[in-house]
Amino acid sequence: MPIPDLSGFSLPETQQTAWSKTWLVISICWTVIRGFIYLALVGIAVMRFNSVFETVVVCLLVLIFQAVGNYFTALFRMDIEENLIHRAYLIGLYDKHGDPEVREAREQLNELGRHYKKQDVHYWINVTVNWLAYLIVLFRLIYELVLA
To answer: Within a domain: residue 105?
Structure first.
């Protein structure tokens, strides 16, 4: 029984060139800038309205929007991690049968795992931005409902 072809999932060499390091820094900076823009838009949307009803409705809509976005992000990450685990189990089964192509498939899977782990920085930046947006919205709700 041959191992499924994972060549479509292979990634470039693991050596990080100056260009790939530069690209990583640029993408992290862009993620941070995009997060600040998002926080500014949330702050403007929440602080713009004067009546309690309008503020509460906008705050709830922002919270719903964030909940849906966080749900899909978590679902996507869990799906990728589950696929990596299933591929590792499959490779382990092929290894027990003594298939000679197991080593190459395992190297490709390890490369995919390393590439996936590089995206953790972007994920945690987005988690932090979403957490700060929740705080902005909740403070505005508390201010409108309790202190106003």
So the answer is: yes
